[in-house]
Structures are given as structure tokens and as C-alpha cells.
Design brief:
11 helices; mainly beta; five-stranded mixed β-sheet; 2 domains; 9% helix; Immunoglobulin-like
Length: 966
């Protein structure tokens, strides 16, 4: 018995000591806005031991702004509080044994996002306050709280300095074009490379004029960016040119778009369910006017409102070592012109697992199914617009029943996924390594049917069917190792090495048959006449290795030097690789001296090189293709390449500064210059050479570009119940072709040129001098200039936007976005063909007025000048100044959670938002056409831009949304 009591005594003592050793001290506190005193909900608190950067615990503030951290042992801790829209705040606390501690955070608004960590290159991230290159960042999840977006283009438009995003037509699901700092060099399609969670994705337009393949419906293709669901996107960062994107190699010469999707927070266990529902419609933005279009009433009658509906469900949370995000969004949208439709079902699952204190694993997976139906338009006599705008008797080319029965359906199944492994070993603090594997697989199918028993010009009444399919797979591996050196208290260095590998595989198949005996039998085997069939495959590979060295002195001087060596399978046999360097630096002036109300001032400069790869067959000396002719099947010469071909090389220099005054006003300004050399120009073969293919790619081109981008911020009002944020963007860009080997590249219906001494894609032609008269004073035609002259450019010289963001009565939020372009010209080919077919009211009135006057009089001569102005054979007559301003977005949101919870007397929802929004509210322009932003050649051609030929204008869109989080 005594031994049992002794044992129990010992056990109790051990238990007491055990409990004592695990006694927890607690840190509590509240996070508030320094100026307004408002409690900040959802702020993140992270704790680490003094002298260590490793986070040991973390949490988020509750609805009352309070937080609580349970710590295992006493000691000195560093606490960091972060919250979107506020500057990071770090405080120290000494936790005594068994004693609780209190730490309160008073946060200062971050108007310019200086504490946001942004990408400054491959495997390189820094706070924007010390970033040494121009980087733009969008918090997409905030934007989708106020507006419903169909695609990436709408999400980006008007929100990033130096970046212009636009669609080429009003088709839902249509092509999207980015113009970054004027469009880069001469080669390629001028588009940035896009990564989603480390996956390099396909960014192309299929089935447009000038596209590599697909079924043409008159100019407007399908954008692969339409597959991306804006509701899944957390943030977007853009590196705008070689000065910042050199380490991305030839892929980054036109900029780099880095998209991060939503993930679960890693600080504390939680579970959220979000539901979002949107309904609305698209409607005709600008009706055709009867003072310009003879058949305006009929033209306007073909349009109807297109309904849209979107339903989204998301689950986000953390349990133990795993955080996660699941999302589904289904969108069904109709355009304004039958039968334009677009459906997208997007499923996403993102997982993050802290496998150990040293190892983190991230997995992202996105499966998208899209369906689209395109109407026929642009340069096509079986299209709606050509049959109502050009004809005094509408539908004389093709009757309306026949047009409405044309079927052009697209379906695309796509998977985008990544696996990232991040290793931070405890045995060497400062060392980090990361490997990311990404895949983008797309299975695209397009079917077009002209059914029998309808009369189609060029097809007849027997019907026609075309099928096109494309299977494409992108696979990339990114690997990097970094080490952070703490040389002294003042000097830090970071070294990084790594590589990027990318493979691209594409398979195409197309077949065309006609002569169907019955409209009920439209499978390919039912076509009695075989038209053509083809299949082909292409593949190329890129690889790059890089080295980067960063130096940070006291957080006021930051310098980066880097170099990348690139390899690509499409390079010539005599130029297997190319080297791209980068050098940049930033200096924090505000850390050198007290600048009074200027609380932040940084100057920066950067230089970098990048380029554009040659085309797929440019390096092949000779390439043959099969041909099926009367004698049989044989081989014919299809292309002549250049084994010495090299990538286009682009050097960029940028200078900039950022300043913030009184934590409420700011400016971000960058001036840049780009010099593209070795641009690839097609050199014509002499007929005497016997080379029957037209041209050989040659490195002789040069183009220079320069301009500035600027953004001005202001928060003049900030109280508990009211806040006003203003943002103004002003951009300028110019370019000049220096050398294209004496050649002239002509496109755009013979009026658009690449010519030395002019900007890229300029409109060039003989100008109208006036009217010509015979000896009796009769008008005999237009008089033109002797030489061709520069008429204008489709790339705007000035672009920008103004954004207003107003929170009032605490729970209401109003936003407005106005954007503009100036110094832009459009070739209005629609108006020209109206004059040809006699449906231009202005041209008809001019001719009628002339017929009523007597030759030789001043009135007659003035009327003749007007008739000459409308002569359709003078193409320069139809190049117009097309400066525009658009009220792009309006939205009003009521955050009703507080009201609902108060009414119910308990917490029912974490958030509840009721939103009304409009896109493309109004357009102000002197352009005589309907929409100055469209392009009949689609969104990818680099030469033919700014041509409006029977192209569907973008619609106005109304959205009504409710979303809530449990």
C-alpha cells in the first residue's frame, strides 16, 4: 500500500511537471485602422522568434478585429500584421513565463501597395517598395466583388499602366489582344506570355483571319483566354518588357502575365462556403443611324438582347496541415446577334500541404468545358451585317432564313494543372529550392455546316460541312535554388540559379465535304462530294538557364544583375542559343533624408534584353508538302528557310520613380525605350533563282519604340463610414520602323504598310487633293496626290483611364471606370463599301446635291468636292481619326451582412453582397462607325490592325449579382 501511494505521488509530481512544462502563454490584441479607428476583420498575424524569419504560428482577426495567439513557451517574439490595402506592421513582445501579453496594431493605409510582394523576375519576389523594375499588380478578387467579368480581357482593361487590352469584335468568347508598351518588336504576334500558378498556358486565337489554322467565319476567332474563369483568380502581376522580363528569355519580350488563383489561408483552421449568382443581359450598344446607313431600321432589327446567367460555388479553408480551395462556376451567355452563344463550366481544386516544417507542396487543377456558337460576319456575304448594311434591298446576297441556319459550333475541353514543391531546409537557413511542373492540355473542335436546300453563294443549295480539330499540349518545368546571405546588419544578398523548360505539341485535322442529299443527314459520310482533308503536327522546345544576384543595402539601395542563356529547337543550325542579360537598381531617397510630407520616394532604372523566336519552319532550308493533282499525288516546295536565322533581339531601358505624400497621394511614372534589331523580314526571291516560294526569312529588320506610363493615386477622404479612392492612368507610346531591308510589307486591303520611317502598321496611300473638272466645268473624278503619304496609325499614341472607388455609409460601394485612346486611326472599310453599293446616305446625298447644280458655279464645285470625298476608289477617304472615350464600368454594391446579422440577432452569414453593374455604358468618339476598337482581322495579326469591315460591335452588358459566404 505504501509503495502504491509512493508511486501515485511520483506520478502526480510528473504530471504536474509535465503540465507545467506545457503551460501556455497567450498573446492577444486588436487590429485597427490608425486614422479611423475601424476594426479590421481578417487581418493576418504571424509570430516568429526574435532573430529568426521562420513563422512558428499565426492567426486571423475575428469580426471584432481581435486575435489570440497561443504560444508554447516564453521568450521574445516578433509579430507581423498584414492586411490588404495597409502597410505591414511589425512589433516585438517579450512573453514572460505564465504571463499573457497584449499587442495592439494600428495600421496605416497603403495607397500605392508598397508592402505588397510582387514578382520582379523568374524566382525573384520583393516588396514593391524596393522593386527595381516596373511591376503592375491587380487584386482580382477585389474587382470581382464589384463587377461580373466574362474573361481576362475585361478584368484587365483600364487598370494597368502601359497595358491595353481589347477584344476584336462583339462576339462573346471572341479574340482578345494585349498591347504592352506599344507591342514590342516586329516579330511574333505581339502578345505576352501567360503563366497560371506556374503553368505556361496557350494564348492564341483559333479560326480568325491570319490565324495559323481553324475555320474562318469572316475574321473573328475563338480566344483560348475565354477558358479562364475570372472568379478563380486571386491576383494578376505583369512584367511589361525586357527590362523586367529578360529572365523569361524569348518568351518574355512582349511582357509576362503572372496569374495566381485562389487558395486557402495557412494561418488557422477555418471553413468558408461561398455562393454567387449573376443574371443579366447583353444589348446593342450603339444603334445604326439613318443619317449614315440607308437600311438602318433593318440593320437594327437583327439585334436582340442576349441573356446571361452565372452560378458559382466555392469552398475554402484549412484543416491541420492542408489548406484548400474548391470552385465551380457555370456561365451561359448569349450575344446580341443570333446565334452567338458561349457556355463555360469551370472546375478548380487547389491544395497546399505543409508536409513538414521544411517541405510545402502545392497542387492546382482546373478543368474547363466551353461551348460556343459564332455568327458569320466581317468580309463575308453570308453574314448578317453585310446583308443589311450594304444592300438597299436587305438579304439580297443571302436571305435571313439561310443565314440563321448556318451552324458554327465550337467545343473545347481543357485541363490546366501544376505541382509545386518548395523546400526550405532547417539545416541551412536562407536556402530555398522550388520545382514546378505544369501542363496545359486542350482538345478543341469546330464544326461548321451550311445546310442543304438553302442557297449560299459559293456553296449552292447542296450544303457544305467543315470539321476542324486541334489537340495541343504545353508542358513546362521550372526549377530554381536560392540563398539569402546576411552579410551584415546593413547588407543582404540573394543568389539564385535555375532553369525553365517548355515543350509545345500540336496536332491538327481538317476535312471538308459538300453535296448533301438531305438536311437530316449531315454526318461527314453523307457528303457525296469530297472537298479536301489535311492533317499535320508541329512541335518545338525551349530551354533556358539563368543566374541572378541581388544586393540590398539597408533597404534603401537595391541592385540586381542577371543573365539567361536560351535554347530553342526553331533556331537555325548556326545559332543554337542566345544570351539575355539584365541589370537594374532602385534607390529609396526617403531613407536618406526627411522629406517632410513625402513619406516615400524611390527612383529606379533597368536594362534588359529579350527577343522573339523565328517561325516554326524559318530555320528549315527546304520544306516540302504533298499535293493532289490530276496526274496523282506528289511533293511540291512549300517553304524555303534560313539555317542562319536568329531570334529577334530587343533591348529595353526604363527609368522611373514612385512617390507617396501624406500616406494618401501617390504617383508611379516610367519612361522606356526599346530597340529591336535582327527582326525577321521576308526577302523576296528573284524569279530567275528558280525558287518558286515567294520569300526567305532574313534578319534585317529594326524598330524603335519609346514612351511613358504613369499612374496617379489619391485617397482624399478616409473616415469610418466614407472613403474615396481615385486613380488616373496616362500612357504614351511611339514607334518607328528603322529598317526592313528596303522591303514594304502590305496588308489590310492594300492600305496598311510596314514601311521604313513610319510607325508599324501605318495607313499609307494617295491623299485626296480635291475634285477634277473638264474644260466645261463638269466633275470628272477625284484628284489625288502624286505620292503615297502617311495617313495615320491604328495604334493609339495616348491611352489611359480614370477610376473612382467610393465607399459610403460604411456598407455601400460605388465604382466607375472611364478609359480612352487618342492619336488613333481606323480604316472604315464598311463605310467604303456602303459607297460602292449605294447605301451610304451621306454619299447618296452628295451625288444628289451635285446633280441639282449647274457646272462651273461655286456651289457646283463645292458639291463636287464632297462627291470626291465619298469616292470609294480613293481608299484614303475612309481612314478616319478615331479617338475615343468609354465609360467602361459602373457598379454599386451593398454589403448587407451587418444589417442581416443585426436583424437576426446572431451571425447568419460572414458576408452578403448585392451588386448591380454595367459594362460599356457609353462611348464618346468622332469615329463615324459603330465601334472604334474592333478589328476585322481578329486579335492576333501583327500587321493588319484597326480595320472595321462589317465587324460586330461590343455590346453593353447589365449584371445583377448576389453573393454570400457562410
Amino acid at each position: 500500500m505504501k509503495s502504491l501511494k509512493f508511486f501515485l505521488c511520483i506520478f502526480a509530481c510528473l504530471a504536474f511537471l509535465s503540465l507545467e512544462s506545457f503551460a501556455q502563454a497567450t498573446i492577444t490584441g486588436v487590429v485597427t485602422d490608425r486614422k479611423t479607428g475601424e476594426k479590421l476583420v481578417g487581418a493576418t498575424i504571424r509570430a516568429s522568434m526574435d532573430g529568426s524569419s521562420k513563422v512558428i504560428t499565426g492567426t486571423n482577426t475575428r469580426q471584432d478585429g481581435a486575435f489570440k495567439l497561443n504560444l508554447v513557451k516564453s521568450g521574445k517574439y516578433t509579430l507581423t500584421c498584414t492586411y490588404i490595402g495597409y502597410k505591414n506592421l511589425t512589433l516585438s513582445v517579450d512573453v514572460k513565463d505564465k504571463s499573457d501579453a497584449t499587442v495592439n496594431f494600428n495600421m496605416t493605409a497603403d495607397v500605392m501597395g508598397l508592402d505588397e510582394v510582387v514578382v520582379t523576375g523568374v524566382a525573384s519576389r520583393n516588396a514593391k517598395a524596393i522593386a527595381d523594375v516596373s511591376v503592375a499588380r491587380i487584386d482580382a478578387s477585389d474587382l470581382t466583388e464589384d463587377q461580373n467579368y466574362n474573361d481576362l480581357n475585361q478584368l484587365v482593361t483600364g487598370k494597368i499602366p502601359g497595358v491595353q487590352a481589347q477584344v476584336s469584335s462583339g462576339n462573346v468568347g471572341g479574340g482578345t489582344r494585349f498591347t504592352v508598351r506599344g507591342g514590342g518588336g516586329l516579330n511574333g504576334n505581339g502578345q505576352p506570355v501567360i503563366f497560371i500558378d506556374g503553368v505556361r498556358i496557350t494564348n492564341s486565337e483559333i479560326g480568325a483571319s491570319g490565324a495559323t489554322a481553324g475555320i474562318d467565319v469572316g475574321g473573328q476567332g475563338y480566344s483560348t483566354l475565354s477558358d479562364l474563369n475570372p472568379e478563380d483568380i486571386e491576383s494578376i502581376e505583369i512584367l511589361k518588357g525586357p527590362a523586367g522580363a529578360a529572365l523569361y528569355g524569348t518568351s518574355g519580350s512582349n511582357g509576362v502575365v503572372l496569374i495566381t488563383t485562389k487558395k486557402g489561408k495557412r494561418n488557422t483552421d477555418y471553413y468558408n462556403v461561398g455562393v454567387k449568382y449573376t443574371t443579366g443581359w447583353n444589348e446593342q450598344h450603339t444603334p445604326y443611324s439613318d443619317d449614315k446607313v440607308a437600311s438602318a431600321d433593318v440593320a437594327n432589327s437583327i439585334f436582340s438582347d442576349g441573356a446571361l446567367e452565372e452560378m458559382g460555388l466555392s469552398v475554402q479553408g484549412k484543416k491541420g496541415t492542408m489548406s484548400y480551395y474548391f470552385g465551380y462556376t457555370g456561365r451561359d451567355e448569349a450575344g446580341i446577334l443570333y446565334p452567338n452563344e458561349f457556355q463555360r463550366n469551370s472546375f478548380r481544386g487547389n491544395f497546399s500541404v505543409a508536409a513538414s516544417e521544411e517541405l510545402n507542396i502545392d497542387v492546382t487543377a482546373n478543368y474547363v468545358m466551353t461551348d460556343g456558337v459564332r455568327p458569320i460576319n466581317d468580309n463575308n456575304i453570308t453574314g448578317w451585317l453585310g446583308n443589311v448594311i450594304l444592300l438597299s434591298t436587305p438579304f439580297s446576297f443571302t436571305d435571313s432564313t439561310a443565314i440563321s441556319n448556318i451552324y458554327d459550333n465550337i467545343d473545347n475541353n481543357r485541363f490546366i494543372g501544376s505541382l509545386s514543391i518548395n523546400y526550405l531546409p532547417k539545416w541551412m537557413e536562407g536556402l530555398s529550392s522550388n520545382i514546378t511542373l505544369g501542363i496545359d492540355n486542350m482538345d478543341f473542335n469546330n464544326e461548321q455546316v451550311y445546310p442543304p436546300n438553302f442557297n449560299y453563294s459559293g456553296v449552292g443549295i447542296s450544303g457544305q460541312k467543315t470539321v476542324y480539330s486541334r489537340n495541343q499540349t504545353n508542358f513546362n518545368i521550372n526549377f530554381d535554388i536560392g540563398y539569402d546571405w546576411q552579410i551584415s546588419d546593413d547588407l543582404k544578398m540573394s543568389t539564385g540559379i535555375g532553369s525553365q523548360l517548355f515543350t509545345f505539341q500540336q496536332k491538327h485535322f481538317s476535312i471538308f465535304v459538300n453535296d448533301f442529299s438531305s438536311p437530316d443527314l449531315l454526318n461527314l459520310n453523307s457528303g457525296l462530294t469530297f472537298g479536301s482533308a489535311d492533317d499535320w503536327r508541329r512541335e518545338y522546345r525551349e530551354a533556358g538557364v539563368f543566374f541572378r544576384q541581388d544586393v540590398n543595402f539597408k533597404d534603401f539601395l537595391y541592385v540586381t544583375g542577371a543573365i539567361r542563356q536560351d535554347y530553342a529547337s526553331v533556331l537555325g543550325s548556326e545559332s543554337q542559343s542566345i544570351i539575355y542579360p539584365r541589370l537594374s537598381g532602385a534607390l529609396r531617397i526617403d531613407k536618406l533624408a526627411d522629406l517632410g510630407p513625402v513619406n516615400f520616394l524611390k527612383i529606379r532604372s533597368g536594362w534588359g534584353q529579350s527577343g522573339q523566336l523565328p517561325g516554326f519552319l524559318s530555320a528549315d532550308a527546304v520544306r516540302w508538302a504533298s499535293s493532289n493533282a490530276g496526274p496523282g499525288v506528289g511533293a511540291v516546295l512549300s517553304s524555303i528557310g534560313n539555317p542562319t536565322i536568329e531570334p529577334e533581339s530587343i533591348n529595353e531601358i526604363e527609368f522611373g520613380f514612385e512617390a507617396e505624400i501624406m500616406n494618401a497621394y501617390g504617383v508611379d511614372f516610367t519612361y522606356y525605350m526599346q530597340f529591336a534589331t535582327n527582326s525577321i523580314v521576308p526577302k523576296q526571291n528573284a524569279p530567275s533563282s528558280g525558287l518558286t516560294v515567294n520569300s526567305v526569312p532574313t534578319n534585317v529588320g529594326e524598330i524603335q519604340s519609346w514612351g511613358f506610363e504613369s499612374m496617379f493615386y489619391a485617397t482624399p477622404i478616409r473616415t469610418t463610414d466614407y472613403q474615396l479612392d481615385l486613380r488616373l492612368i496616362v500612357n504614351m507610346q511611339q514607334n518607328e520602323i528603322v529598317n526592313i531591308g528596303g522591303e514594304e510589307i502590305i496588308a489590310g486591303f492594300g492600305l496598311e504598310y510596314w514601311r521604313e520611317g513610319d510607325p508599324r502598321s501605318s495607313f499609307i496611300g494617295q491623299k485626296l487633293v480635291g475634285a477634277s473638272f473638264d474644260a466645261d466645268g463638269n466633275y470628272i473624278g477625284p484628284e489625288l496626290s502624286d505620292d503615297v503619304e502617311y495617313l495615320g496609325n491604328p495604334l493609339p499614341q495616348f491611352t489611359g483611364s480614370f477610376n473612382l472607388d467610393f465607399r459610403f455609409l460604411k456598407d455601400f460601394h460605388f465604382t466607375a471606370l472611364l478609359d480612352y485612346a487618342a492619336g488613333v486611326h481606323v480604316f472604315n472599310f464598311t463605310r467604303r463599301f456602303q459607297a460602292v453599293f449605294g447605301t451610304s446616305v451621306e454619299a447618296n446625298n452628295a451625288s444628289a446635291a451635285l446633280a441639282e447644280l449647274n457646272p462651273g458655279t461655286d456651289e457646283y464645285r463645292a458639291a463636287a468636292e464632297e462627291v470626291a470625298r465619298w469616292n470609294p476608289n480613293v481608299l484614303s477617304n475612309f481612314v478616319e481619326e478615331a479617338d475615343w472615350m468609354k465609360l467602361r464600368e459602373l457598379s454599386l454594391r451593398w454589403s448587407a451582412a451587418r444589417t442581416l446579422n443585426d436583424l437576426m440577432g446572431r451571425k447568419v452569414v460572414s458576408s452578403l453582397n448585392l451588386i448591380a453593374s454595367v459594362r460599356n455604358v457609353a462611348t464618346f468618339s468622332g469615329y463615324s462607325g459603330i465601334d472604334p476598337e474592333v478589328n476585322t482581322f481578329g486579335s492576333r495579326t501583327q500587321v493588319s490592325r484597326g480595320v472595321d469591315f462589317l465587324t460586330l460591335a461590343t455590346p453593353r452588358t447589365f449584371n445583377f449579382t448576389v453573393n454570400f459566404t457562410l
